[in-house]
Write a structure and sequence with these properties.
Strand content: over 45%
Strand order of the largest sheet: 2-3-5-6-7-8-9-10-11-12-13-14-17-18-21
Radius of gyration: 24 Å
Oligomer: single chain
Helix content: under 10%
Structural class: mainly beta
């Protein structure tokens, strides 16, 4: 697929949070109160063209001759302004040395206005302004200092997606409430923090009927996640994790997509990164890592997949003090092997990131 779009984007974020520790009798409290506001504006040309209009299902790497279909660089001009505001109130109650209960809630508001100018000059506006209060609760138990078991339930108002269907391309969907339950164990072993969790997430899913997309579908993401981070040796730091997903579409437009994996969602993801400080050069670190993503469905019926991919990164970090300031220099090479691969999102195909070299400096004073 080939998209011909001109994009202009601007994002501004504000955050303010206050924490307070106090006791009421035998119960210790850690109270959090705060808010955040994200202001997002974008404008783009909505003309899309396709070179894979369903005539070549199957292996992406079969080199069938394809006649490109080029659309002119024109189409609906879409401007979108979004404001996402969230207020959070949470209280963690420590009940002795082993038990802790977290009770909280959020009040989220999404304000969105979209203006569409057609190729003939007609202008249409769509606006929604919705707010929702959602709960959060978590309960944890520490049988030992190094081991914690927990269970949690959260709800969150999430901003709606954008249609990619031909009948209503660019339409912004209303916000929806996502729900998540999680049960897990956290442990500290020899300087390394490890966690194993089982999660269950329900959220909206885009579906297409007669060329018109909507977010009336539902997808459920169940799975396991394992993560670790820490220093098993004095100069060695590692972090990474593994995720196994059982994602299924539970409400779809047709039987062909019901029970399938949502578009763009892999079944397996693995990441492992290591950093080592050279003993003969204090402050000089070398690092590297590998990321693996399993095959990913491109279409809703799961007839077309992008292949699994392994990408490696390497880098160097040097930190020292310059007078009274801390300085950190970083040199990183992403996709060091120059792996050529496909990525997919919302039914669109993208070329994966090529080999990229980046250099940065951070001054802390």
């Amino acid at each position: 697929m080939d998209g011909q779009e001109r994009h202009h984007r601007r994002a501004v974020q504000f955050n303010l949070f206050l924490d307070a520790d106090f006791a009421t009798g035998p119960v210790r409290h850690k109270l959090t109160l705060g808010g955040a506001r994200d202001i997002f504006a974008q404008a783009y040309n909505g003309q899309m063209s396709s070179t894979m209009a369903g005539t070549h299902p199957g292996n992406l790497h079969d080199r069938h001759p394809v006649i490109p279909v080029y659309a002119p660089d024109s189409g609906n001009e879409i401007a979108q302004d979004s404001i996402y505001t969230i207020w959070i109130l949470a209280d963690s109650l420590r009940l002795g040395e082993q038990w802790e209960l977290m009770l909280g809630g959020t009040l989220a508001q999404v304000e969105d206005e979209t203006k569409t100018r057609s190729v003939t000059g007609g202008v249409t506006r769509a606006r929604y302004d919705k707010q929702k209060a959602t709960p959060a609760v978590a309960f944890s138990f520490k049988p030992t200092r190094a081991l914690t078991a927990y269970v949690s339930y959260t709800e969150a108002l999430q901003q709606g997606g954008v249609s990619t269907a031909s009948g209503n391309a660019g339409e912004i969907f209303a916000p929806y409430v996502g729900r998540q339950t999680e049960i897990g164990i956290k442990a500290t072993l020899g300087g390394v923090d490890a966690a194993l969790a089982r999660f269950d997430i329900t959220q909206a899913n885009m579906m297409v009927e007669d060329g018109i997309a909507s977010d009336n579908g539902r997808a459920r993401h169940k799975g396991w996640e394992f993560s670790l981070s820490g220093q098993p040796l004095p100069r060695l730091t590692l972090w990474g994790g593994f995720t196994a997903l059982e994602a299924k579409v539970e409400k779809a437009a047709s039987a062909a997509t019901h029970g399938k994996s949502p578009q763009g969602v892999p079944e397996r993801m693995t990441r492992l990164f290591i950093e080592y400080e050279l003993p003969f050069a204090p402050g000089l670190f070398v690092n590297g890592g590998l990321s693996h993503t399993s095959k990913v469905p491109v279409d809703a019926a799961n007839t077309l997949y992008v292949d699994s991919v392994v990408v490696g990164d390497i880098g160097v970090r040097y930190q020292h003090r310059l007078r009274d300031a801390g300085v950190i220099w970083r040199l990183n090479v992403g996709n060091v092997g120059g792996k050529r691969y496909w990525a997919t999102r919302s039914g669109m195909l993208y070329s994966g990131n090529p080999r990229m070299v980046s250099f940065s400096a951070t001054l802390d004073f």
